[in-house]
Amino acid sequence: MEILKQERRLLLIIRSLVVFYIFALFFWGITAFPLESEIGIVCNVLGISQGVSPENYEGLKFWIAKVNEALVNTNRDYPFLAYGTDWLAFSHIVIGIAFIGVYIKPVRNIWIVYFGMIACLGVIPLALICGAIREIPFYWRMIDCSFCVFGIIPLYILLRYIKRLEKLINYVPSKY
Known about the structure:
Blueprint: H1 2-30, H2 35-46, H3 59-77, H4 83-98, H5 100-104, H6 110-133, H7 138-169
């Protein structure tokens, strides 16, 4: 009876972490759709006047004003380019859906957690290499790299709980 109680407790923790992770992926995915509106809000909060040249600002304000100008001009003149960020949003949602497998059968689908951890680690070279090529400021690339940390920590905790559950129930994987 004690083992069954431990199993239920572990499943509750695992499923709670999975729901949190799915929600986070959905949230970050959905926020990739309205970029121009979101950056407009950031401009208002930081006191950046829309339509004023980014050259009038320094540091972070310069970068935000430059991103705002680029989004406004690109969406006005080349709206089809935003389709790329639509795919970015969609990919976050699809990856979130994959984690439903971990929710249903955590031990059997532990590979999805490993996949998520590898994806998180992949953020670092992407941000550092592609960010440099695309002339993204270094501090902004570090912000992007922080998504690796914020993504991998709950996955590592989730992995540890799944391993405990696996040990508790003496899971033996099939050959196939």
